[in-house]
Amino acid sequence: MRLYPVKRGLVRWEPVLARRFPDPVAKPADPDMIFVMLSHAGLRSLLLLLASAAGGHLVAAPCESLLKLQLKDTSIRVAEQVTGGSFTPPGDASAKPITGLPPFCRVAGSIAPTSDSDIRFEVWLPLSGWNGKFQGLGNGGFAGYIAYGGGGGLAGAIKRGYAAASTDTGHRGSPGAAWALGHREKVVDYGYRAIHEMTVKAKAIVRAFYESPAKRAYFASCSNGGRQALMEAQRYPEDYDGIIAGAPANYFTALLTGFIWNLQGLHEGPIPAGKWTAIEAAVNAQCDARDGVADGVLDDPRTCKFDPSAIACKGEESDACLTSAQMNALRRIYSGPKHFPGFDPGAESGSGGWAAWIGGENGGKSAQYGFGTEFLKYMVFADANYDYLTFDFDRDLEVVEERMAKILDSTDPDLSKFRARGGKLIIYHGWNDAAIPARNSINYVASVKKMMGAATADSFLRLYMVPGMKHCGGGPGPHSFGVNGEDEDGMFRALVRWVEEGVPPASIKATKFNEGGPAKGVNRTRPLCPYPQVAKYKGTGSSDEAENFECKVP
């Protein structure tokens, strides 16, 4: 038992934990100050009480004690306090320190649900100011990394008061998929098991550290992370209360074989990087003003039936025109294969556009080439020398589905269990995504409504299509809308209000900043409308300001 100075009125626990004593020596200047003799349990109660009064939670167990925590199939290798406001991600000599961090407990370990599993994970736990919630983080591409920095990483989450976790999904060595060759269990870990295992173990660590379970759990990620998000809602509906799935690669097998469809067409008619600017200009000339505002953004590219012959070469070939073979390749990309939607016109040029994802920049290989060929080589056919040009869509699609669909696809429209436990789901997708066709998200939501009924689906699911946005961000349209919780009026906060207050999200304000980011000012804003509504210009006021638009069903 020891004496501790305490304000009058804060002592609320049972006398067995604390007894009041006058201070025989000190004479506090504050007349409301008394001294309390506390046991260890009483001191802990006082600390938790003070933390609660300050609007947060204080830790109830030392960080280092988590090294002794016993969890199934789990080895905890690191449990350390990080208090200097800076952290440098390990394992990368070129990694820069992440700064501006609050003090936190860093836990790192590995989960091995099978003999061939090594699912590395980290959990970051704020030492003070914990909001009582947990956030799971996803991965892009073939994963293989811990998401440390950025708004969608561990650092951003703890800055907003969340305990958070990230996993490499069981392998290292991405961006390729060579790690998958001969390791089916690692493919399963990547496909669905790792995120679930991370979530279960992280929640247990949260409970042990704070001696209190997380009262809510959220997951938000984009691309492959969007696939992970939908996988969680479908396979493990108890893991998260609220989920944001951005540009989900959920029909993974169809998407990556769709890449092969584009590659085979471009093999016959390669489109150099310099031509995409001319293609975008021709698309805008034909379709931009149809939505009522000529701003370089197609509000719904499906309405633009662009004909590549509009810029057919009539003489010598140049970057301003297309040859016959190039026009055929472009039509092939627009149409897509029979099993998956194609890519709609718009925002073809610039960073993150078609040149990088589809055509290949400066004579190099495109991102679709990397993903599509690695998928076939290392996951489907187990042949590092497989030639994508031999892929037969009439013969080989069935093989892909048979071997990989149950592991990698998160296309199940039955979300009844997720809904039954109060789960809420938001999906968003950029209309000008050059990595994942925007219509894929529309098709998935339509399948949910067909299975569950439109009214039922609307009670827990929202879809937002983002005009002028490319893959997970960028593009000529407003594409910043708080998907990571950094904006009070953004999408993540709207999801939290829906889960915790029962307030369904309506329109969400999106912002496009000037080049150089927020510090350089706002370029334009627009409302994002729940699909199938679209933002319509009212006809007066600046078309660069969201308040001059309203959401309407077209």
Explain how this protein is built.
With 554 residues, the protein is α/β, with parallel strands linked by helices. Among the domains are: 2-53, no CATH class; 67-214, no CATH class; 254-406, no CATH class. It has 14 helices and 18 strands. The protein has helices spanning 40-53, 154-159, 184-210, 224-235, 252-268, 276-287, 324-335, 354-359, 367-380, 397-408, 416-420, 439-452, 454-458, 491-501, and strands at 2-7, 18-21, 33-38, 74-82, 86-87, 98-99, 104-111, 119-126, 133-137, 163-167, 216-222, 242-246, 424-430, 461-466, 508-513, 522-528, 534-537, 549-552. The strands form 5 sheets. The protein has a 9-stranded mixed sheet, with helices on both faces. α3 (184-210) packs across α4, α5 (252-268) runs antiparallel to α7 (324-335) and α5 crosses α9 (367-380). The longest helix is centred in the middle third of the chain and has 27 residues, at 184-210. The radius of gyration is 27 Å and the shape is globular. Mean pLDDT is 90; it is low at 1-36 and 38-55.
Topology diagram in text:
Blueprint: E1 2-7, E2 18-21, E3 33-38, H1 40-53, E4 74-82, E5 86-87, E6 98-99, E7 104-111, E8 119-126, E9 133-137, H2 154-159, E10 163-167, H3 184-210, E11 216-222, H4 224-235, E12 242-246, H5 252-268, H6 276-287, H7 324-335, H8 354-359, H9 367-380, H10 397-408, H11 416-420, E13 424-430, H12 439-452, H13 454-458, E14 461-466, H14 491-501, E15 508-513, E16 522-528, E17 534-537, E18 549-552
Parallel strand pairs: 9-10, 9-11, 11-12, 12-13, 13-14
Antiparallel strand pairs: 1-3, 2-3, 4-7, 5-6, 7-8, 8-10, 15-16, 17-18
Helix pairs in contact: 3-4, 5-7, 5-9, 5-10
